[in-house]
Amino acid sequence: MNSAVIVDAVRTPLAKGKPGGAYSEIHPVDLHAQALRAIAERNDLDPAEIDDVISGAVGQVGEQSGNTARWALLAAGYPESVPGVTVDRQCGSSQQALHFAAQGVIAGAYDVAVASGIESMSRIPIGSQTLGKDFAGPQVHARYAEQRGLVPQGISAELIAKKWNLSRAQLDEFSATSHERAARAWKDGLFDSQVTFVNDLLTDETIRPATTAEVLAGLKPAFWSEDWATAYPEIDWKVTAGNSSPVNDGAAAVLVTSEDAASRLGLKPRARVHSFAVVGDDPILMLTGIIPATENVLARAGLTIEDIDAFEVNEAFASVVLAWQAETGADLDKVNVNGGAIAIGHPLGASGARLTTTLLNVLEQREGRYGLQVMCEAGGLANATIIERL
């Protein structure tokens, strides 16, 4: 059986995903192309060698529609012979793209593949793809009617905070630490080798170096409304804009090959895609799938939580990561050591590949062996991936 190895991973700095953000005047195809162009150029790789470009995007409408991966690879200057496909597993879309790329290499269907992701939330606002329609349908709503029905992710984050008895102070302290770590990582040059710069943006635009838990404590709950408060009287309303991820624009790409192809092309593998898993979980709590996904991928790998040297857990909300930590027992000093999505940002379809990029570099910086990334996803899904540094 072939091994799937990671040769390189690169990302753009992440911009504010709103009008006036650093990338708000850039077409998402062109932003995506920047990461695809960089992954080839950094490795002196002839793009004609690439068997497939598998890309994640969530807002597949308007400028991100029509199989955006294909248009991005052409914009990047890849030959017309290179195919591309766009996948949607919500926030885990580009992590799923990595799984598909690795599976293709392991199966012998690919020698060289690129897993990438894009999200331009300034130009394709969150939720645009639904066109204001109900995407679940009456039978799904009927199935969960006795559980008070489906809810938005912000309510799920509140329910998680309540279930795991997480205090507002814990959420805000975790979030302030995310900003502190991300700001320090940029200052210390820890992101330099993994970034391809776009325009004049030289850092992640949503990092707030001066923020503190005390500052965050002054923010009002983001998801309170009279209707939700009536429906869920048990909620304490702790989730704010400050302990949630922002909306962002950004792109990332990961180069995956077989060991034979890497040798033939003169490429140096940096890590092996060791194990991967995807799970379904409660669609109302929605964001807790990272707990069984972590258990699943560790079992598949034959490893324990103590064997993992670095974790990247997507910070959709602080409550999600802290509930995961409470259940898994993971050492928080190994989690998101260079900051997470609360500070760096969460450009939905690009976040999985961004986490891989960060995780690969953290393992090298700390000389660790195993890294685990895990991503919560809308609908009660989660992807988990273990990579092994070579």
Number-wise, the strands total 10
Unreliable runs, pLDDT <50, ≥5 residues?
A: none
Order of helices and strands: EEHEHEHEHHHHHEHEHEHHHEE
Give the CATH level 1 class of the domain at 4-123 and 246-271: Alpha Beta
**Whole-number radius of gyration?**
20 Å
Strand content: 15-25%
Supply the key terms.
13 helices, globular, alpha/beta, 18% strand, Peroxisomal Thiolase, Chain A, domain 1, 390 residues
Structural write-up:
By secondary structure, the chain is α/β, with parallel strands linked by helices. It has a domain of 146 residues: Thiolase/Chalcone synthase (Peroxisomal Thiolase, Chain A, domain 1). Helices cover 34% and strands 18% of the residues. The protein is built from 13 helices and ten strands. Strands 1, 2, 3, 4, 5, 6, 7, 8, 9 and 10 form a ten-stranded mixed β-sheet that branches. A hairpin with a 3-residue loop joins strand 9 and strand 10. Helix 1 packs across helix 2 and helix 3 packs across helix 13. The protein is globular, with a radius of gyration of 20 Å. Keywords: Acyltransferase, Transferase. InterPro entries: Thiolase (IPR002155), Thiolase-like (IPR016039), Thiolase_C (IPR020617), Thiolase_CS (IPR020613), Thiolase_N (IPR020616). This is Thiolase family protein.
Q: How is the topology of this model organized?
A:
Layout lengths: L3 E8 L3 E2 L11 H14 L10 E5 L11 H8 L8 E4 L5 H15 L4 E9 L17 H6 L9 H11 L4 H20 L25 H4 L9 H6 L16 E11 H6 L6 E10 L9 H12 L8 E4 L4 H11 L12 H4 L6 H16 L3 E8 L3 E9 L1
Parallel strand pairs: 3-4, 3-5, 8-9
Antiparallel strand pairs: 1-6, 1-7, 2-6, 5-6, 7-10, 9-10
Helix pairs in contact: 1-2, 3-13, 5-11, 10-11
